[in-house]
Amino acid sequence: MKPKSNEKKQEPSIKCLVIQMAGLTDVFQSLMALRAAKQLYPNLEVTYVVKEQHIAPLERIPWIENVISLPVSEFTLPLKSNPVVTEDQVKKFAHWMKANLIDSYDLLINWSYTEASSYLSTIIPAACKLGYIQSDDLKLICADEWSHFVDGVIKRGLDQNIHLTDVLTTQLLTELQVSFSDPKNVQNESVTSKSFFNLNINRDQYRRLQLDLGRTRVVFYLSSDSERFMWKPKDWANLAVDLLKKHSDTQIILLGESDAESIEIEILKQLERNNLSSRCISVVGLADFDLYVASVSQSHWVISAHLPTVHLASVLGTRVIQLADINSDWVERGPYGNSHYIVVPKPQAPKLDPFLVRALWSYASTDFKRARIVNLRTHFQESGIDNVAEEALIYRSKIRSPEEGGGVVYESILAEHYSLRDWIKLVSGQVARSWYCGWMAPVGQEISRKNIHPQLLNELRNAKTILEQMILRTEELVVIATRIYDKGKNLRSDKVMSLSDQSALQDIYHELQSVELKFDELSNRSVALKLFSNMRKILMHNLKGKTLQEQSKHAVLQYKKLNRGMKVYLSWLDHTLGLSRPMIVTKENVIQIKGEL
Amino acid sequence: MDQQQDVIDEVKLEVLIRRFLIALNQEESDNLSEQSIVNEA
């Protein structure tokens, strides 16, 4: 009998190449998704290509096997004086590839979503690819379905509510499960960690931080991003003074690049005047990556408008108050995790009030015990801010339970009514889940009667009438594409055919184009429906197949997919409109009014 | 997912590298390279 081996069968490694050519915000977001995948697939062997200036975080992550620095300036410098690429430059790049990359990867993830990266991901051989690539005829296309959504909706600024970290995580995990294996069963292992990075920090550097471990430490990351909501150095100084005055158990750590020195100087001046300097330390312009991470990880809170820092804090599990402007993309890029806050000044408010931010922090930092006693609105009133609902929108992050669909959601904690944009965000996110996750929340989840306003209902009634017509158009498109498929089946060649076949095909194409045009025109009549014309264009641009028959077959499937998504949307429209109908009041809910009539 | 195991011939490889370098240079010059996925709108 063969003796039983005690050794577990080693899973073969999955060689995975990640290309991220954007900035630090995207690097941090991709790390959250990769960490989640690595926990479920320990056999994932990650090679990460990043621009030379952003290599520091990657070099400090022990579970990333290889980090490759892309020397962008070395490759692009010669093109500044002469935009024609020489043979030598081609050879130099080919040499770089040979020296740094292996012959082929199992999985290539292009998370850059740029044109340049699409060429790079096409050049490097891999069995499976995600993100942008180039087609055989050099057209930029999406290699996977989530990328259709990124391209057609997220990149084009349409409203939806799936956080980018969740998009990347789901995109990667779906691919791993479909193309490789089921995940290892891991129970609720946290992705975020104070020790996410292996820091290279010495005692002298750490001493420079002078952290007061007995106090609640709050990082202010100072940057020009706060100018977007009209903050001047004085506003930061007001926030610092107010926070230290009202909370004697706090310490502030100032971080920022050297261009934030004017803000730093003003804060330090005002703190000096108020005898509060001893509770503030500044490393503005002095912190390298290690000190930057140590400052954030050793603090309890970060208050900032600076997105890379917001995401660094998310990765490290430090709580965040993000100062965002109304046009920023905080739904996709807000802090990830539980109980972070986002404060957004309303368009009609002149600017974000620093005292409001301090009052919010004061509430947020004690909310676990305080929320049961007093709500946020009352808290603001007690802090002398009566008109908070007119001034700002405030959101709190929450990770949904797996039963609710998972992922992060930002709950408005002041607004009473849904705007049309709020509604579109919620429902577009559900349509995406139905397309790509094979799962959708029960219709109506996260919508309650009290959030519905007559103006919203009017807009939704209008959208419903249009959507019903659009659904009919997609059904026509399925029929027409099927006719093209049938026609293609009977052709010996796509290129050589009789004049009558050619003419018949042209007629069907014109018919198809005419219905598509009507579809897009209908979609443009309501902002709530723009999602579908954008997705139609993306789906048709990314049709698979080389022959007429293959492409038309894929077109049929894509029109059906569009149709399914629209029916999901319709069910949410019906549900919301149904909430406005009068309800029978049960006896228990009737309040008896005593007194004489 | 896209099955992309195809071997690229040398001529096409050269074209792709040239286009990559031109696009990279363009994105750097336009200061687009640091932009994230969702800032484009």
Report a brief summary of the structure:
Chain A has 597 residues and is an alpha/beta fold.
Could you say which overall geometry of chain A the principal axes of the C-alpha atoms support? globular
Q: What is the C-alpha radius of gyration of chain A, as a whole number of Å?
A: 28 Å
Average pLDDT figure of chain A: 90
pLDDT under 50 segments of chain B (min length 5)?
1-5
**What coarse outline of chain B follows from CA principal-axis ratios?**
elongated
Specify the helix fraction band of chain B.
40-55%
Strand content of chain A: 5-15%
- Output the structural class of chain B: mainly alpha
Helix content of chain A: 40-55%
Description:
The complex is a heterodimer of chains A (597) and B (41). By secondary structure, chain A is an alpha/beta fold. Chain A is built from 22 helices and 14 strands. In chain A, helix 9 runs parallel beside helix 14, helix 19 packs antiparallel against helix 20 and helix 21 packs antiparallel against helix 22. With 41 residues, chain B is mainly alpha-helical. In chain B, 49% of the residues lie in helices and 5% in strands. Chain B has one helix and one strand, in the order E-H. The radius of gyration of chain B is 14 Å and the shape is elongated. The N terminus of chain B is likely disordered. The chains are: A alpha/beta (597), B mainly alpha (41). The interface between A and B is large, with 52 and 35 residues.
